[in-house]
């Protein structure tokens, strides 16, 4: 019992999900005196293994025990132990494994909540960083690249891409942030008539499991990518463009939380782009107003100087006329 209590307490001591899962399988192996342990994490809504955590020696064993790990009402995965030392597994071992699996479900739930909170914090901080960068003054191209790059990093995507509507009624990739060479991505056009275009131009988000095989995707670069999010950049009914965040083929799909946070980020980024554009217009207007004020001041100054010059000329003419009269009088008297 002391060993079980210590094991239960140790399982919930780390809030990092990866560390928690590894600790669960190691604790199960030690608690049941097994040679080998494994924790198979299942893909959401699929009966396939998404990740595998192991402990001990990986040998072929005839005797093994299994216990399901349930998080809330969802089967998160299965915990296995194999190769009891020195003899076969007992009912006590099975009971210990089930108790540990139940506690593991609680610990995993807590780790998930912690991970979700951290993920939300990163996206909120990223959106704030984008807003600050855009409002401190930058041109349109740099503003779009700032949004694309920050979103790519936050979403752990292979690329961050901005598309904007074309005059022909399609959409064109105008900015691409990627660790690889972006050649061949920028300038790619989604032609009018593409099934996905109606949704994008309508300001609807589009979520794709595999870009390479989805019939809605028609561009030449689709074969490079797998899971993808295409999110509207719109504010106040104004569609600025679309933020696309594709991952490589075979990489993990986006979760519901990923989609929610990315959609919120896109809305915030769109608002920041609109505000930055309005700020640039105000600054340009201020420049024009300054130029008008300077022109008026110069006009007034020129008028004043012309008036002063006219007065000086008038005074000079009067003095010249007076001098001529004096000279004539002097000659007449002589």
From TrEMBL:
SMART domains: GAF
One example GO MF annotation: protein dimerization activity
Keyword Hydrolase set for record: yes
Domain of life: Bacteria
InterPro entries according to UniProt: Bact_Sigma-Reg, GAF, GAF-like_dom_sf, Sig_transdc_His_kin_sub3_dim/P
Cellular-component GO terms for this entry: membrane
Keyword hit for rRNA-binding: no
GAF domain: residues covered: 16-118, 139-283
UniProt keyword terms in alphabetical order: Hydrolase
Gene3D superfamilies with a match to the protein in the record: 1.20.5.1930, 3.30.450.40
Record-linked PANTHER family: STAGE II SPORULATION PROTEIN E, STAGE II SPORULATION PROTEIN E-RELATED
Record-given protein name: GAF domain-containing protein
Species for this entry: Streptomyces parvus
């Amino acid at each position: 019992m002391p060993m079980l209590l210590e094991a239960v307490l140790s399982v919930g001591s780390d809030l990092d999900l990866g560390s928690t899962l590894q600790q669960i399988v190691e604790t199960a192996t030690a608690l049941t005196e097994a040679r080998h342990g494994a924790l198979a994490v299942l893909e959401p809504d699929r009966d396939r293994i998404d990740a595998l955590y192991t402990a001990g020696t990986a040998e072929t064993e005839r005797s093994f025990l299994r216990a399901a790990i349930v998080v809330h009402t969802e089967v998160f995965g299965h915990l296995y132990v194999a190769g009891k030392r020195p003899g076969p597994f007992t009912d006590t071992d099975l009971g210990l494994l089930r108790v540990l699996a139940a506690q593991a479900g609680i610990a995993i739930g807590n780790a998930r909540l912690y991970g979700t909170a951290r993920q939300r914090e990163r996206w909120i901080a990223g959106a704030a960083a984008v807003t600050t960068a855009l409002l401190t003054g930058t041109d349109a191209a740099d503003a779009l690249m700032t949004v694309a790059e920050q979103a790519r990093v936050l979403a752990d995507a292979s690329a961050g891409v901005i598309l904007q509507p074309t005059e022909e009624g399609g959409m064109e990739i105008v900015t691409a942030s990627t660790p690889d060479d972006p050649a061949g991505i920028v300038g790619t056009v989604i032609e009018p008539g593409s099934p996905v275009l109606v949704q994008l131009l309508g300001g609807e988000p589009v979520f794709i499991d595999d870009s390479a095989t989805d019939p809605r995707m028609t561009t030449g670069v689709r074969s490079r990518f797998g899971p993808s999010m295409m999110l509207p950049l719109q504010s106040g009914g104004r569609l600025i463009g679309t933020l696309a965040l594709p991952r490589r083929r075979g990489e993990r799909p986006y979760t519901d939380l990923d989609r929610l946070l990315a959609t919120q980020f896109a809305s915030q980024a769109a608002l920041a782009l609109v505000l930055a554009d309005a700020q640039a217009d105000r600054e340009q207007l201020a420049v024009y107003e300054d130029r008008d004020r300077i022109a008026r001041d110069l006009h007034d100054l020129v008028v004043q100087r012309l008036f002063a010059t006219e007065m000086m000329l008038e005074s000079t003419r009067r003095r010249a006329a007076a001098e001529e009269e004096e000279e004539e009088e002097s000659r007449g008297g002589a």
